[in-house]
């Protein structure tokens, strides 16, 4: 094995420069693992405005590299009220018609609080902080991956612009529409592409001063989230402009404060919510591995997808830092798969169920206030209270068990799509 502080004798390609990919890149560079990030866009960028991170994700940032957490703290947004800085969500009944057990519009169902101060961040600003930590020259842009070939002990990456790159392995961090996932699982695999979850979300901006007039200052200082159910999505694009009339029609039967606040959105956008069916594996040999949304994209009902990607980066970076040869890459990827797949796929399933609870669609809970409260008050416990140090220990034990095992019997592969 190579000395702890020496440059590792293998190099890793990272396909995708979002939050998960850059967290991995920063951590691997910190551990002297040569890396190169390939981003399809002309520059590092993130879709969407804000993203929240739970206590688990903040602990993972600290363990990855304290500089990551420091960067996050420089651009985080916390509650305007210090007394409410541990509140994650307040859930209120929103329909005009009272529920079967007597809930009325605006009535509090439950409050979800964290043991730590809660915060969120503008995606682009956090990404800028991560970019500062990437080694100079370690990123290439306008590199849309179209193929991966096995070549000796490494991989040959093929890009849409006709260029190629050779690395010992590639980690797919290219999001919910991941090309690496398709190449790894095969286009005939029904889990290779994201599926529509049956839900949509309207997004838009509301002037704070007008919102205060409708809801009052206390409620405006909370984040307001509205969901829409849609059994089918018959559009090529996952995000499309919507008219105000269409949006308000979708919320027929909701209380006046809800409809009034929605009426302030001048340019609503409708986002279809997709996620992934559980993949049988997150890796192939010591050649390809998946991380973040490319491995386990989930609906946003837990607000934990980005945090799960940060956890992925923590475990994978520590495993790769613990090996000293190309031959051990498969053991590292296998240990990562064994540790991360159950937890991350649980998030996908749990997020779907939580969305059903939000909409009173769960077959057992329905619109029963007490059952809803009981579920939601504890829905984040298993996410936030994860012992990451123990997870790291488990991953290391798994790695040691896999070292020295016989090499995979998978056949060589060549996969190209256009």
Blueprint (SSEs and pairs):
Elements: E1 12-15, H1 19-30, E2 35-38, E3 50-53, H2 55-64, H3 66-75, E4 76-78, E5 87-92, E6 108-113, E7 119-122, H4 123-131, E8 139-140, E9 145-151, E10 154-159, E11 164-167, E12 169-172, H5 179-185, E13 195-203, H6 208-215, H7 217-220, E14 227-229, E15 239-241, H8 244-250, H9 256-263, E16 269-275, E17 283-284, E18 288-290, H10 293-296, H11 305-321, H12 329-358, H13 369-378, H14 381-384, H15 388-402, E19 414-416
Parallel strand pairs: 1-2, 1-12, 2-8, 12-18
Antiparallel strand pairs: 3-7, 4-7, 5-6, 9-10, 9-19, 10-11, 13-14, 13-16, 15-16, 17-18
Helix pairs in contact: 1-4, 1-11, 2-3, 2-11, 3-4, 11-12, 11-15, 12-15
Detailed description of the structure:
With 418 residues, this protein is an alpha+beta fold. The chain is 37% helix and 20% strand. The strands form five sheets. A six-stranded mixed beta sheet has the order 8-2-1-12-18-17, sandwiched between helices. The longest helix is centred in the C-terminal third of the chain and has 30 residues.
């Amino acid at each position: 094995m190579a000395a702890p502080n020496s440059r590792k004798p293998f190099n890793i390609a990272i396909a995708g420069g979002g939050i998960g990919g850059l967290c991995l890149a920063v951590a691997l560079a910190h551990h002297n693992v040569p890396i190169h990030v390939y981003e399809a866009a002309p520059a590092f960028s993130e879709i969407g405005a804000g993203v929240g991170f739970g206590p688990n994700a903040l602990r993972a940032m600290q363990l990855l590299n304290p500089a990551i957490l420091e960067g996050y703290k420089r651009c985080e947004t916390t509650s305007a009220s210090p007394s409410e800085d541990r509140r994650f969500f307040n859930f209120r009944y929103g329909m005009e018609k009272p529920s079967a057990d007597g809930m009325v519009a605006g009535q509090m169902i439950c409050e979800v609080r964290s043991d730590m101060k809660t915060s969120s961040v503008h995606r682009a600003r956090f990404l800028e902080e991560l970019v500062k930590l990437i080694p100079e020259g370690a990123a290439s842009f306008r590199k849309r991956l179209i193929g991966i070939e096995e070549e000796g002990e490494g991989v040959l990456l093929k890009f849409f612009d006709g260029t190629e790159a050779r690395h010992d392995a590639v980690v797919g961090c290219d999001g919910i529409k991941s090309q690496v996932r398709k190449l790894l699982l095969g286009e005939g695999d029904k889990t290779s592409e994201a599926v529509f979850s049956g839900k949509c979300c309207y997004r838009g901006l509301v002037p704070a001063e007008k919102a205060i007039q409708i809801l009052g200052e206390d409620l405006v200082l909370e984040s307001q989230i509205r969901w829409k159910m849609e059994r089918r999505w018959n559009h090529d694009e996952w995000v499309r402009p919507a008219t105000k009339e269409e949006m308000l029609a979708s919320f027929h039967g909701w209380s006046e404060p809800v409809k009034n606040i929605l009426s302030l959105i001048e340019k609503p956008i409708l986002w279809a919510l997709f996620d992934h069916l559980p993949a049988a594996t997150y890796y192939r040999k010591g050649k390809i591995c998946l991380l973040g949304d490319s491995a386990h994209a989930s609906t946003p009902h837990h607000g934990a997808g980005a945090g799960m990607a940060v956890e992925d980066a923590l475990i994978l970076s520590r495993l790769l830092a613990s090996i000293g040869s190309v031959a051990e890459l498969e053991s590292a990827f296998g240990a990562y798969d064994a540790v991360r797949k159950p937890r991350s796929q649980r998030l996908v399933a749990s997020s779907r169920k939580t969305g059903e609870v939000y909409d009173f669609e769960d077959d057992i809970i329905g619109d029963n206030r007490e059952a809803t409260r009981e579920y939601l008050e504890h829905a984040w416990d298993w996410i936030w209270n994860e012992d990451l140090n123990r997870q790291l220990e488990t991953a290391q034990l798994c790695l040691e068990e896999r070292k020295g095992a016989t090499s995979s019997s998978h056949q060589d592969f060549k996969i190209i799509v256009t």
